[in-house]
């Protein structure tokens, strides 16, 4: 199976052929994958080198001319380093574009903390008008990317090396119900779904699946908890723990509830290790999730 990043390159290359409104802006990362597309569209595939502030600034400038830019690099260099440009060159200028990241929270541990970005979604959440997409499979990444490219708004698509075994239909921006139960609701975001399903096997819980987390689908969460007394909700996100707890609390403001936000801790794991070891170290593997979820749901 190809990776989400592989699918991003092939899909975007095709979109460049089909839609003259689109342009791709790179900062060396994934440049080789766009060699053929650059030969076909030298005016719409732009590599700025390792200059991330310029990367986003060029994207914003292209948007001001009427193009729809697709801006790509690692998450830490796309959201964190040039955050001022994201805020001003897109949001303040009132233009749209598609930011597509790679690397996720810790996909390449050998790169060290400079290449890790568990706080990217929380940081984007401070800005108005951004839709945030977190696919859990390359097929979902393609569907979300095509939808974002065809639109006019501001979209952030977060790609990862982590992937669920199979894709789920991406039919809209809302959460989908994967499993129904009566003793709590677990919201699994993107590549967390398989581990959440394994962790909740045999538990009487509803599992919702989210590939678009902003806007937050509060209506789906309210429907999932309807009919009970106190609502118990667990959010399992592949980035900073607690990123969506405020959104869940707001959605359930009229319902007695408890919310547990699971994700990447603030502490830095300083050993390189492997992706799977970081997943376990953050308590996001299936075994750890079962202990944490079941412990929360049975607590009185």
UniProtKB/TrEMBL annotation:
InterPro entries in the record: PDH/Transketolase, THDP-binding, Transketo_C/PFOR_II, Transketolase-like_Pyr-bd
Record domain Transketolase-like pyrimidine-binding: where: 2-167
CDD domains on file: TPP_PYR_DXS_TK_like (cd07033)
GO molecular function: magnesium ion binding
Pfam families: Transket_pyr
Gene3D superfamilies named among the record's database cross-references: 3.40.50.920, 3.40.50.970
Signal peptide interval: none
PANTHER family, alphabetized: HYPOTHETICAL TRANSKETOLASE FAMILY PROTEIN (PTHR43825:SF5), PYRUVATE DEHYDROGENASE E1 COMPONENT (PTHR43825)
Protein name per UniProt: Transketolase
Native species: Streptomyces scopuliridis RB72
Lineage: Bacteria, Bacillati, Actinomycetota, Actinomycetes, Kitasatosporales
């Amino acid at each position: 199976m190809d990776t989400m990043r592989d699918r991003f390159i092939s899909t975007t290359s095709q979109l460049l052929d089909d839609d003259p409104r689109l342009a791709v802006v790179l900062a060396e990362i994934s440049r080789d994958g766009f060699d053929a597309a650059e030969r076909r569209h030298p005016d719409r595939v732009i590599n700025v080198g390792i200059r991330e502030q310029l990367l986003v600034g060029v994207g914003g400038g292209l948007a001001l001319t009427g193009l729809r830019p697709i801006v790509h690099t690692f998450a830490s260099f796309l959201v964190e380093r040039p955050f001022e440009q994201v805020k001003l060159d897109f949001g303040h200028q009132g233009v749209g574009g598609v930011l597509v990241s790679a690397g996720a929270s810790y996909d390449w541990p050998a790169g060290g903390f400079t290449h890790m970005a568990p706080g990217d979604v929380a940081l984007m959440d401070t800005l108005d008008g951004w839709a945030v997409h977190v696919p859990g499979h390359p097929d979902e990444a393609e569907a979300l990317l095509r939808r974002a490219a065809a639109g006019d708004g501001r979209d952030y698509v977060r790609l990862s090396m982590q992937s669920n075994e199979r894709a789920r239909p991406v039919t809209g921006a809302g959460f989908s119900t994967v499993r129904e139960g009566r003793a709590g609701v677990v919201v699994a975001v993107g590549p967390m779904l398989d581990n959440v399903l394994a962790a909740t096997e045999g538990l009487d819980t509803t599992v919702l699946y989210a590939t678009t987390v902003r806007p937050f689908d509060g209506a789906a969460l309210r429907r999932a908890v309807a009919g009970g007394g106190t609502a118990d909700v667990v959010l399992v996100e592949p980035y900073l723990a607690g990123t969506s707890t405020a959104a869940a609390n707001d959605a359930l403001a009229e319902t007695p509830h408890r919310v547990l936000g699971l994700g990447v801790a603030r502490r830095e794991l300083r050993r390189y290790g492997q992706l799977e070891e970081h997943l376990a170290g953050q308590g996001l593997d299936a075994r750890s999730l079962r202990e944490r979820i079941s412990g929360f749901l049975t607590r009185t």
